[in-house]
């Protein structure tokens, strides 16, 4: 006997007869019955209602859209209508069925009339195949069955995994390039003249790092730090940054080709999402009028102002992290622990990075309420909000989307995507932007430091540059995101699922003597098993996309400072693909399948990140790195520039040249740092600091302006060359393969020929 097939299951608490909730539930189910739905009720600790749509609904769909589902997916029981299509249509009708009280399903779920609504994981061949051949750790390095994923979860999920697999595959080349860059830094460039001079500078006295109780220090004490810096900051990094700009373009262009091939095989290349939504509205209600496009310059202005305000708040959080680092640096340098004093700067950077990660978690990782996703899933504005349990960025983005009054769900999703990515970007990158481009450049100089609240000095860069601070910050954030966050992402659903099974599975009733056991409905166990799984919502797949796009940003934008970022991303993605698969197949309820022929607005977001990557890496090399000052010194100020010395390294003397002189008597009156240090007298009562200033009036030297001009020239040259290479790569690699174009050409030709033959026969 074949098991009954049900499109959806609604779950409700058992309410008292005649209660308001029971009446509302009955009204909703009656409306479904009027539309021809078959409803089956099973009572347990909850009430379960199986819902099956009448066949004429799917015939209407096929007629209106000329049967776009010509390739069968898993449809033997339903007359050539794929299961994913059935679920999608039924979900739309359920969400848009209105009771006599003018309430929809989302309103009833807010009032706890219904607790849940979900399609079923059924025991079918496709599901068993995916569980064995995809959703297991042992198949981690095997090719993904994209066609099977599409058959079970729909095109949207299949395209996500196809994109993620393609991204992971191309990360192999970026990871190898990053690894070669780091290896070159540790071998070829390990004996650099710059780091050698720092290690030998045991007579160079540096100015104190804080105002009180901080000693003068010897430059050679930071020998290890200098070697690590040059491992990252060398000529190979410039080549790697250019390579990553090209890689980002090639990745997207090749993905466009891959996507065109895939959706052509699915007969969805010319699919129109707006037409589908209109068809579903008419199937649900023939009298339904389309929602018209709206635009209000006033609303757009309000949204723009609020977005800018939110960005200012996120930048303010980054400023709070800066203040923490400044205060921590001052406290660590005055600590009684010698280890903490000696590595005060590194400890301030590392603890600041951990605090930054915690900020990211607070702003981005808090669980979303069911009411919020129900609100988001409809194009109309929500009636109530519960921001206390929403993560901050998402709640603000949802609120702003409602102000815009988008016409359709897809338009609403696109608007939401742009806003949430903008907020997440500033949450993740504001602190990194400060370290990369402002740290050590706005702090003033000895005798005239810039202070926070007139008390704490801003941080300074190490004499070998600030790029190591950026390296440490990125390494800590990426490692924490890819370990703690991923572990929690898997453990929380796993624990939640087992707790739900434990609490919601009913105890078997004890049998009386002579009593026969009642035969259990075969649907009951299946529905209970699905109910015990974790909830999914419209944010479920969105979260996975957002996580990967943010990771892509880390992998490309500041990759010049952290060449190992692609390697970490590669390791993470290999695990991520199968972790997502296991969650979807074993721990979560079945997602409502969505039809799609591309990854949507995420492609534009990725292209924007590619442009930001060119700008970001150009700025890192021009401003953060010491590459430009070293080159200016070599060609304008080194011994090589004055006479031909073939046997000499042209960077000889760079460190001494890059340090300015400060007279100790010019310290501010309240400064007691290092006073009375016995070694100062023979050194001439002066200390050194990183800058290009005159020794008499501390104004900028001409060399400072030469370096400034060279930085600007390099930035313009790098970005124009990189953008030109990106444009050439985009032109060189066609978005659509020739075989796809020829296939459509042949199809059009065949259709026109048939049309002409029909006209000719009609005339005859």
From TrEMBL:
<keyword id="KW-0325">Glycoprotein</keyword>
<dbReference type="Pfam" id="PF16178">
    <property type="entry name" value="Anoct_dimer"/>
</dbReference>
<feature type="transmembrane region" description="Helical">
    <location>
        <begin position="596"/>
        <end position="623"/>
    </location>
</feature>
<feature type="domain" description="Anoctamin dimerisation">
    <location>
        <begin position="84"/>
        <end position="146"/>
    </location>
</feature>
<feature type="transmembrane region" description="Helical">
    <location>
        <begin position="344"/>
        <end position="363"/>
    </location>
</feature>
<dbReference type="InterPro" id="IPR049452">
    <property type="entry name" value="Anoctamin_TM"/>
</dbReference>
<feature type="transmembrane region" description="Helical">
    <location>
        <begin position="549"/>
        <end position="575"/>
    </location>
</feature>
<feature type="transmembrane region" description="Helical">
    <location>
        <begin position="236"/>
        <end position="255"/>
    </location>
</feature>
<keyword id="KW-0812">Transmembrane</keyword>
<feature type="transmembrane region" description="Helical">
    <location>
        <begin position="416"/>
        <end position="439"/>
    </location>
</feature>
<keyword id="KW-1133">Transmembrane helix</keyword>
<feature type="transmembrane region" description="Helical">
    <location>
        <begin position="708"/>
        <end position="733"/>
    </location>
</feature>
<keyword id="KW-0472">Membrane</keyword>
<keyword id="KW-1003">Cell membrane</keyword>
<comment type="similarity">
    <text>Belongs to the anoctamin family.</text>
</comment>
<dbReference type="GO" id="GO:0005886">
    <property type="term" value="C:plasma membrane"/>
</dbReference>
<dbReference type="InterPro" id="IPR007632">
    <property type="entry name" value="Anoctamin"/>
</dbReference>
<feature type="transmembrane region" description="Helical">
    <location>
        <begin position="157"/>
        <end position="184"/>
    </location>
</feature>
<feature type="domain" description="Anoctamin transmembrane">
    <location>
        <begin position="149"/>
        <end position="743"/>
    </location>
</feature>
<feature type="transmembrane region" description="Helical">
    <location>
        <begin position="301"/>
        <end position="324"/>
    </location>
</feature>
<dbReference type="Pfam" id="PF04547">
    <property type="entry name" value="Anoctamin"/>
</dbReference>
<protein>
    <recommendedName>
        <fullName>Anoctamin</fullName>
    </recommendedName>
</protein>
<dbReference type="InterPro" id="IPR032394">
    <property type="entry name" value="Anoct_dimer"/>
</dbReference>
<dbReference type="GO" id="GO:0046983">
    <property type="term" value="F:protein dimerization activity"/>
</dbReference>
<dbReference type="GO" id="GO:0005254">
    <property type="term" value="F:chloride channel activity"/>
</dbReference>
């Amino acid at each position: 006997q074949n098991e009954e097939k049900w499109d959806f299951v609604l779950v409700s608490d058992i309410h008292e007869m005649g209660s308001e909730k029971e009446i509302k539930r009955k009204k909703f189910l009656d409306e479904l019955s009027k539309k021809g739905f078959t409803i089956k009720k099973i009572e347990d600790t909850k009430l379960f209602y199986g819902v099956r749509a009448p066949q004429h609904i799917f015939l209407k769909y096929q007629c209106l859209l000329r049967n776009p589902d010509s390739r069968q997916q898993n449809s033997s029981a339903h007359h050539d209508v794929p299961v994913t299509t059935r679920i999608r249509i039924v979900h739309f009708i359920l969400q848009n069925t209105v009771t006599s009280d003018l309430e929809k399903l989302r309103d009833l779920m807010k009032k706890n009339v219904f607790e849940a609504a979900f399609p079923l994981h059924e025991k079918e061949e496709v599901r068993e195949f995916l569980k064995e051949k995809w959703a297991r750790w042992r198949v981690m390095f095997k090719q993904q069955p994209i066609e099977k994923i599409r058959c079970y979860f729909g095109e949207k999920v299949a395209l996500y995994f196809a994109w993620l697999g393609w991204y992971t595959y191309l990360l192999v080349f970026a990871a190898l390039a990053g690894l070669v860059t780091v290896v070159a830094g540790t071998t070829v460039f390990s004996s650099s003249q710059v780091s050698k001079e720092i290690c030998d500078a045991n007579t160079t006295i540096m100015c104190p790092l804080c105002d009180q109780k901080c000693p003068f220090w010897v430059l050679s004490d930071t020998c290890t730090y200098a070697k690590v810096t040059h491992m990252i900051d060398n000529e190979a990094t410039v080549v790697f940054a250019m390579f990553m700009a090209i890689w980002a373009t090639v990745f997207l262009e090749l993905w466009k080709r891959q996507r065109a091939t895939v959706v052509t095989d699915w007969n969805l290349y010319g699919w129109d999402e707006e037409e589908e939504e209109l068809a579903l509205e008419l199937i649900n209600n023939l009298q339904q009028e389309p929602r018209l496009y709206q635009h209000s310059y006033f609303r757009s202005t309000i949204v723009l102002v609020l977005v800018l305000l939110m960005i200012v708040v996120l930048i303010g959080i980054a400023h709070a992290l800066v203040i923490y680092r400044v205060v921590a640096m001052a406290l660590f340098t005055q600590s009684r622990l010698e280890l903490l004093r000696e590595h005060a700067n590194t400890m301030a950077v590392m603890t600041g990075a951990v605090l930054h990660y915690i900020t990211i978690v607070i702003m981005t990782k808090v669980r979303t309420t069911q009411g919020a996703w129900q609100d988001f899933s409809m194009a109309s504005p929500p009636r109530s909000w519960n921001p206390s349990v929403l993560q901050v960025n998402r709640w603000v983005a949802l609120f702003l989307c409602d102000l815009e009054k988008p016409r359709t769900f897809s338009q609403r999703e696109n608007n939401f995507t742009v806003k949430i990515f903008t907020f997440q970007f500033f949450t993740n990158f504001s602190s990194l932007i400060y370290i990369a481009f402002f740290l050590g450049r706005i702090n003033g100089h000895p005798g005239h430091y810039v202070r926070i609240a007139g008390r704490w000095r801003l941080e300074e860069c190490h004499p070998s540059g600030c790029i190591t601070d950026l390296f440490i910050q990125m390494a800590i954030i990426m490692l924490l995101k890819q370990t703690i966050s991923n572990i929690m992402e898997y453990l929380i659903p796993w624990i939640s699922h087992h707790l739900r099974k434990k609490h919601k599975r009913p105890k078997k009733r004890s049998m009386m003597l002579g009593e026969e056991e009642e035969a259990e409905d075969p649907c009951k166990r299946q529905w209970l098993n699905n109910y015990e799984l974790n909830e999914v919502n419209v944010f479920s797949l969105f979260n996975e996309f957002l996580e990967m796009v943010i990771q892509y940003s880390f992998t490309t934008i500041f990759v010049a400072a952290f060449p190992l970022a692609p390697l970490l991303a590669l390791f993470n993605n290999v695990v991520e693909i199968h972790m997502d698969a296991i969650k979807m197949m074993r721990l979560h309820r079945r997602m409502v399948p969505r039809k799609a022929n591309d990854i949507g607005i995420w492609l534009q977001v990725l292209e924007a990140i590619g442009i930001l990557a060119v700008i970001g890496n150009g700025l890192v090399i021009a401003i953060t790195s010491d590459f430009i000052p070293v080159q200016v010194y070599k060609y304008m100020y080194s011994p090589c520039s004055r006479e031909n010395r073939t046997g000499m390294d042209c960077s000889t003397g760079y460190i001494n040249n890059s340090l300015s002189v400060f007279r100790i008597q010019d310290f501010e009156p309240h400064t007691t740092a290092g006073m009375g240090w016995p070694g100062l007298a023979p050194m001439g009562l002066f200390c050194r600091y990183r800058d290009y200033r005159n020794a008499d009036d501390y104004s900028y030297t001409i060399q400072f302006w030469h370096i400034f001009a060279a930085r600007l020239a390099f930035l313009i040259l790098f970005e124009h060359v990189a953008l030109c290479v990106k444009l050439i790569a985009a032109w060189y690699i066609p978005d659509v393969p020739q075989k796809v174009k020829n296939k459509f050409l042949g199809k059009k030709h065949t259709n026109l020929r048939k049309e002409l033959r029909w006209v000719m026969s009609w005339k005859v």
